[in-house]
Amino acid sequence: MTWVDRSLREIPRWAVALTLKTALCAHLGRTEEAREWLQRRIEFQPDLTIKKWKALAREAFASPELFAWFADGLRKAGLPEE
């Protein structure tokens, strides 16, 4: 079990862990699982979009490549752009 799985077991609504789990599953080609995690993520922020996520998260990333990786994973999981 990974740290993200342990984190989600202890703090099931932690947005950072939910976002990471969604992106990881999407990039691994586990699309259905990614969509399930995305659904959990947007339960507490139903209006979430790529654009809104970028506005919230941009300052948290020192690496533009990592930021783009997350955004791409969220797209693959089905999060709309706007």
Keywords:
82 residues, mainly alpha
Question: Care to describe what's here?
Answer:
It is built from 5 helices and no strands. The relative contact order is 0.19. The protein has helices spanning 3-10, 15-27, 31-43, 50-57, 64-77. It has one domain. The protein is mainly alpha-helical and 82 residues long. The protein starts with a helix and ends in a 5-residue tail after the last helix.
In short:
The chain is mainly alpha-helical and 82 residues long. The protein has helices at residues 3-10, 15-27, 31-43, 50-57, 64-77.
The total strand number stands at 0
Counted up, domains total: 1
* H-E order: HHHHH
Q: How much helicity do the residues have? A: 55-70%
Low-confidence stretches: none
What is the residue-mean pLDDT, rounded to a whole number?
Answer: 94
Total number of helical segments? 5
